[in-house]
C-alpha cells in the first residue's frame, strides 16, 4: 500500500517537543497536541500513553495487529488512539513509520497525528533523516500527516526534525549546547531558554519573533 491523494493545500503542522527530564514534554503533548476527536497513532515503547484526552489508548505489541487496527480505523471518520509498543530499535521504529505511511490520504477528512516518544533513542545522527521517518517529515504533510516528535536533547536530533517542525515547544534544557541549538532554531535569546524552570516553556510558531511563554499544569491530564 502507498499513500494517496497528495494535497499541497494542507498546512505544515509538524511539532517538536523538547525538554529535559521533568520538563513536561508528555504533558505538553497531552495538553497542546492532538484533540479528543483526532485520529492519533503513537510510537510508545515505554507505555507513556494509557489514556489520551480522556480516551483509552489501544495498545498493540505486534506489527501485524497494529497495522490491521490502524487500517480499519482509518476507514472511519471517528477519532481513535492507537499505540505500538515494541523493542526500542531503529529497525522497529522505521517499520512503524512505514506502516503509518501506508495510511496517508491527503483528501481524508481527518489528518493522522503521529506521536513519537523519545525520538533521539531511534535517531542515527544529527544530519538528514533517511527512511520512512524522513519521508513523514518532508513529504508526509501533503498526505495528511502531522508528526509530533518528542525528545530530551536537541543535540541528538536530526536537522530534518528541527527544520521540518515549524512549531516548536521548548522546555527546560539539559545543557547549554541544547539551549544554544534551540535558541538558533527558534530565534529566542539563549539566556531566556536557560532561565526556564520545570513546566515553563516557549511555544515557537512560524515567523521571526513569533513565540510565547507559558507554564503547564498537570492537573486533570491522563
What do you see in this structure?
- By secondary structure, the protein is α/β, with parallel strands linked by helices.
- The protein has seven helices and eleven strands.
- It has a nine-stranded mixed sheet, sandwiched between helices.
- β7 (112-116), α4 (131-138) and β8 (145-151) form a beta-alpha-beta unit.
- The relative contact order is 0.21.
- The model has no long low-confidence stretch (mean pLDDT 94).
Short description:
The protein has about 220 residues and is of the alpha/beta class. It is globular, with a radius of gyration of 17 Å. It has helices at about 25-30, 65-75, 90-100, 130-140, 160-165, 175-185, 190-195; strands at about 15-20, 40-45, 50, 55, 60, 80-85, 110-115, 145-150, 165-170, 200-205, 210-215.
Low-pLDDT segments:
none
User: Shape from CA axes?
Assistant: globular
Q: Trace the largest sheet across and list its strands.
A: 5-6-2-7-8-1-9-10-11
* Proportion of residues in helical segments: 25-40%
Indicate the mean pLDDT. 94
Q: Termini, distance in Å? A: 34 Å
Rg computed from alpha carbons, rounded to a whole number of angstroms: 17 Å
How many helices does DSSP assign? 7
Which series of helices and strands comes N to C?
Answer: EHEEEEHEHEHEHEHHEE
- Give the amount of beta strand, in percent: 15-25%
Biggest β-sheet strands, sense, barrel: 9 strands, mixed
Instruction: Output the structural class.
Output: alpha/beta
In total, the number of strands is: 11
